[in-house]
C-alpha cells in the first residue's frame, strides 16, 4: 500500500484533517506530537500532502485544493482550474457529451469536463497518478461522471467517445521538452488520435513553432491573468487552420485575420504592450489594427499610437519621455521627479531589469512611480518612460 492509499484510510483522512493548514514553522512540533499516536511514516505523508494542498491553492482554489490529493509532479504539471474550465466550456459548446482524457494526470481537466456535464474516461499509465485521479473524482463528488483507467494511452480504444483530449508529458529527466516529437506520447501520435474522433483538443507547449501546427487544426494560445499558460490544437471546430489568442478571465478571444505586419512608425503618445498570448499567436498586427497604431521597431512587439483605444488584448501606457539609452540620464531624471517605484520592462534589450533598478534607484524616496521600457526604436536602443493609461 502506497502513502496515498494509506491517506485514504479513515486514520489517514483523520490525520489530514488534523494537519490541515499547518504552518511550515510548526511542522516539527506537530509531527512530534502526532507520532506518539500514529505511525511516523503516515504522519510524514499527511504533512507532505498538506504542503502539496497549500501549493495547489493557486491553481485549484482553496476549497477544491483542501479536498483533493496531489503528487509533487501533479501540482507542478496540472492545468490551472480556470483554464481547464474554459476548455471544458468550449467542448460543451461543440455539443460534446463524452471525452477520452488521455494522459489525465491527477485529473484537473477531467474534473472541469465533468463539471461541464461531460462524461470522461481519464487514462494515465502511472499507477500512483491514476490512484490520485480516482481519489480526486471521488473527493469532489464526480465519480459518476469520471472513469479512471490505468493504461497506456496508445492502447485505449476511444471509439465510444465524442472527443479526445491529449495532454502529453512535456518534461523529461533534463527538464522541459521543446521538440513536439519528444513529447510522451509524441505529437504525431496525438494528432492521429485526434483525427479519429469528431472533436479533439491537444495541449502543447506555448512555444510550439507555428510551422509545427498540423494542417486543419485551429491553434489557440491561452493566458490567464496575463501569464501565458498553454497552446491548444483544436480539431473539428468551424475555424480549421486559423489561430486565436484567448485571455482569461473573460474570456476575451482575438481571432487571427491574416493581416500583414504593421508598419514601423514614430513613437506616439501611447505605447501598447500586447498580452503574451497575442504575441505567441502572432497577432500583434490585429492589436495594431484595433488601436490604429504601428510598431516601434520591425522586430519588437510593442505597438505605438497617437490615441488611446482601450483593448483587453494589450496594456496601454501614456509615454512622457523618450531618451537614448543612458543610465546616468535615467538616474538623474528619476531623482528630479522624486520617483521611488520603478517598473522596468524590456524587449530587444540585454539589460537586466533588477540590475538597472539598483543602479538608478539607490535608496530613492518620493511619492511617484514610473514605468521604463528598454527597447529599440527604428533600431536604436531607447528608453521610453510612462505610466499605465
Task: Give a quick rundown of the structure.
With 389 residues, the protein is α/β, with parallel strands linked by helices. Helix content is 33%, strand content 27%. It has helices at 3-7, 10-19, 27-34, 40-65, 72-77, 81-93, 108-115, 127-139, 187-194, 276-280, 284-291, 327-336, 353-360; strands at residues 98-102, 119-124, 146-150, 163-166, 171-172, 175-176, 199-204, 218-224, 227-235, 243-248, 252-255, 270-274, 294-295, 303-305, 314-324, 339-346, 368-377, 380-388.
Task: Provide structural commentary.
It is a single chain. By secondary structure, this protein is of the alpha/beta class. It has 13 helices and 18 strands. β17 and β18 (380-388) form a beta hairpin. α2 (10-19) crosses α4 and α6 crosses α7 (108-115). The chain is globular and about 65 Å long.
List the helices and strands and how they pair.
Elements: H1 3-7, H2 10-19, H3 27-34, H4 40-65, H5 72-77, H6 81-93, E1 98-102, H7 108-115, E2 119-124, H8 127-139, E3 146-150, E4 163-166, E5 171-172, E6 175-176, H9 187-194, E7 199-204, E8 218-224, E9 227-235, E10 243-248, E11 252-255, E12 270-274, H10 276-280, H11 284-291, E13 294-295, E14 303-305, E15 314-324, H12 327-336, E16 339-346, H13 353-360, E17 368-377, E18 380-388
Parallel strand pairs: 1-2, 1-4, 2-3, 4-7, 8-10, 16-17
Antiparallel strand pairs: 5-6, 7-9, 8-9, 10-11, 12-14, 12-15, 13-14, 15-18, 17-18
Helix pairs in contact: 2-4, 6-7
Amino acid at each position: 500500500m502506497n502513502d496515498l492509499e494509506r491517506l485514504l484510510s479513515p486514520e489517514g483522512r483523520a490525520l489530514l484533517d488534523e494537519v490541515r493548514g499547518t504552518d511550515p514553522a510548526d511542522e516539527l512540533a506537530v509531527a512530534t506530537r502526532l507520532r506518539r499516536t500514529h505511525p511516523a511514516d503516515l504522519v510524514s505523508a499527511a504533512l507532505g500532502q498538506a504542503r502539496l494542498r497549500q501549493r495547489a491553492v493557486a491553481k485549484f482554489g482553496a476549497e477544491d485544493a483542501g479536498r483533493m490529493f496531489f503528487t509533487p509532479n501533479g501540482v507542478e504539471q496540472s492545468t490551472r482550474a480556470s483554464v481547464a474550465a474554459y476548455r471544458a466550456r468550449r467542448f460543451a459548446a461543440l455539443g460534446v457529451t463524452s471525452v477520452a482524457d488521455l494522459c489525465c494526470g491527477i485529473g484537473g481537466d477531467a474534473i472541469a469536463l465533468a463539471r461541464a456535464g461531460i462524461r470522461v474516461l481519464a487514462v494515465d499509465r502511472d499507477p500512483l497518478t491514476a490512484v490520485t485521479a480516482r481519489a480526486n473524482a471521488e473527493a469532489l463528488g464526480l465519480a459518476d461522471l469520471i472513469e479512471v483507467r490505468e493504461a497506456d494511452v496508445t492502447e485505449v480504444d476511444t471509439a465510444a467517445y465524442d472527443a479526445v483530449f491529449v495532454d502529453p508529458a512535456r518534461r523529461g529527466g533534463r527538464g522541459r521538452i521543446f521538440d513536439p516529437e519528444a513529447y510522451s506520447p509524441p505529437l504525431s501520435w496525438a494528432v492521429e488520435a485526434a483525427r479519429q474522433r469528431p472533436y479533439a483538443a491537444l495541449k502543447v507547449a506555448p512555444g510550439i513553432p507555428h510551422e509545427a501546427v498540423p494542417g486543419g487544426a485551429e491553434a489557440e494560445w491561452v493566458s490567464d491573468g496575463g501569464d501565458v499558460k498553454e497552446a491548444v490544437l483544436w480539431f473539428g471546430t468551424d475555424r480549421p487552420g486559423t489561430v486565436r489568442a484567448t485571455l482569461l478571465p473573460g474570456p476575451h478571444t482575438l481571432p487571427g485575420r491574416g493581416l500583414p505586419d504593421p508598419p514601423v512608425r514614430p513613437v506616439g503618445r501611447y505605447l501598447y504592450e500586447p498580452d503574451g498570448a497575442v504575441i505567441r499567436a502572432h497577432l500583434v498586427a490585429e492589436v495594431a489594427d484595433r488601436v490604429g497604431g504601428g510598431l516601434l521597431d520591425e522586430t519588437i512587439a510593442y505597438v505605438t499610437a497617437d490615441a488611446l483605444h482601450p483593448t483587453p488584448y494589450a496594456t496601454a501606457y501614456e509615454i512622457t519621455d523618450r531618451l537614448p539609452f543612458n543610465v546616468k540620464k535615467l538616474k538623474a531624471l528619476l531623482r528630479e521627479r522624486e520617483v521611488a517605484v520603478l517598473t522596468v520592462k524590456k524587449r530587444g534589450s540585454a539589460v537586466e531589469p533588477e540590475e538597472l533598478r539598483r543602479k538608478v534607484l539607490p535608496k530613492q524616496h518620493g511619492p511617484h512611480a514610473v514605468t521604463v521600457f528598454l527597447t529599440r526604436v527604428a533600431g536604436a536602443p531607447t528608453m521610453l518612460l510612462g505610466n499605465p493609461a
